[in-house]
Specification:
This protein is α+β, with helices and mostly antiparallel strands. It folds into 3 domains: 83-163, OB fold (Dihydrolipoamide Acetyltransferase, E2P) (Beta Barrel); 170-249, Nucleic acid-binding proteins (OB fold (Dihydrolipoamide Acetyltransferase, E2P)), CATH 2.40.50.140; 253-367, no CATH class. It has helices spanning 2-6, 34-83, 128-135, 158-166, 253-261, 287-294, 354-367; strands at 87-95, 98-103, 106-111, 139-148, 153-157, 175-184, 187-193, 199-206, 227-236, 241-245, 300-310, 316-323, 332-340, 342-350. It has a 5-stranded antiparallel beta sheet. Residues 1-39 and 264-279 have low confidence and may be disordered. Residues 1-21 have a biased composition (Low complexity). Residues 1-31 are annotated as: Disordered. Residues 84-159, 173-247 form the S1 motif domain.
Length: 369
């Protein structure tokens, strides 16, 4: 029994197939449901297709709405332009050329030259780029000056809006403190200071209105940033232009010093020998012809030359004729002819009143080249 129990167990290799322990049954898995997988893939594909179609539909609807909004905004901005409407629009950003404003779904541009001079009221010499940067985030009042849908061009002007708001306050004869802006050979643009302390409008001082002195170059008299006092001499509402003068706020130096240059003594008159022209001064060229023409005017019966003198400074190279503001005495008016430094008195005997003499002189100057 003992020996039998000590026998080694038979090797597995020696076991016959019939004597081996039965193999455990293979794991039982249900057969793959290929039809279900195919159905799921088809459903996913269909879902993706539906999702893409929905996205495309949403995108198309969004684009259609966007274009419709643009079309509506272009129509609205054209109407604003036609009506001259003043718009208050937010400033989105600035660049070296000006400001970009928001108009509903669109953006428009205000070029630097079309900005109001009010932005320079605190510091006229401040760089324009610094001024426009400070305006970002604020709102400005503008008018539409160009709305070109085909070229996608929308331009605003703050100057035009300022004209609409403030030009009614500007009257001929009104005086303003001003700051000189751009200076050109033909004149200087001056920004006008209004009661609120800002410079809302700009006018032109023509070269002829800069000074009583002879002005050959405006830059010899005015520089950008100069503080000046001006008087309004013209307002053109159609062209939005203001004509200004500096010299008309000053007394004409000839009229102011005439009696000092050529004093009129009690015994001097146009008929007196001592009133004859000094031999060293010749009659102004062209004045003889003008006087002959004056005699052709109805109501003027006599023209005589009076005193001559030389001014200290040149006022005009061309011959100018002025009617003295001194009231007529014994139906006699005094004209002042001047060219270069030379001054010549001319006396008119006439039955015309001052306005009649003025018109007669204007007619003659219109006829004489």
């Amino acid at each position: 029994m003992l020996s039998a129990s000590l026998k080694p167990p038979p090797s597995l290799a020696a076991l016959s197939p019939s004597s081996r322990a039965p193999a455990p049954p293979a794991a039982s898995f249900p057969a793959p449901r290929r039809s279900c997988l195919r159905l799921s893939a088809a459903a996913a594909s269909e879902g993706a297709t539906v999702s893409q179609e929905d996205a495309a539909s949403v995108s198309a609807a969004f684009e259609e709405a966007r274009l419709a909004q643009f079309a509506s905004d272009w129509k609205a901005v054209r109407a604003d332009k036609d009506q001259g409407k003043i718009l208050t629009l937010p400033v989105l950003r600035s660049n070296t050329g000006g400001l970009i404003l928001k108009y509903n779904s669109m953006q428009g541009f205000v070029p630097n030259p079309l900005l109001s001079p009010a932005h320079w009221s605190k510091d006229p010499k401040r760089p324009i780029q610094d001024v426009t940067k400070d305006l970002v985030g604020s709102s400005v009042s503008v008018k539409v000056v160009e709305a070109n849908e085909a070229e996608k061009k929308l331009v605003f002007s703050e100057k035009d809006a300022s004209w609409s708001m403030y030009s009614s306050q500007v009257k001929i004869g009104g005086t303003y403190d001003g700051i000189v802006g751009s200076v050109f050979h033909y004149g200087a643009f001056v920004h006008l200071r209004f009661p609120d302390g800002k410079y809302h409008l700009t006018g032109l001082v023509h070269i002829s209105e800069v000074s009583w002195d002879l002005v050959q170059d405006v830059q010899d008299f005015l520089t950008e940033g100069d503080i000046v006092k001006v008087i309004v001499v013209n307002v053109d509402a159609e062209k939005s232009r203001i004509g200004l003068s500096i010299r008309q706020l000053e007394e004409d130096p000839l009229l102011e010093t005439l009696d000092k240059i050529i004093p009129l003594e009690p015994d001097l008159s146009p008929d007196a020998e001592t009133a004859s022209s000094p031999p060293e001064i010749e009659l102004l060229p062209g004045l003889d012809g003008i006087c002959n023409e004056l005699l052709q005017e109805d109501g003027i019966t006599d023209v005589r030359f009076g005193r001559q003198a030389l001014e200290k400074r040149v006022v005009s190279q061309d011959l100018e004729l002025w009617l003295s503001s001194v009231p007529a005495k014994d139906n006699q008016y005094k004209l002042l002819a001047r060219a270069g430094r030379q001054v010549q008195e001319v006396y008119l005997t006439t039955s015309l009143d001052q306005e009649g003499v003025k018109k007669a002189v204007q007619r003659v100057l219109g006829r004489v080249p």
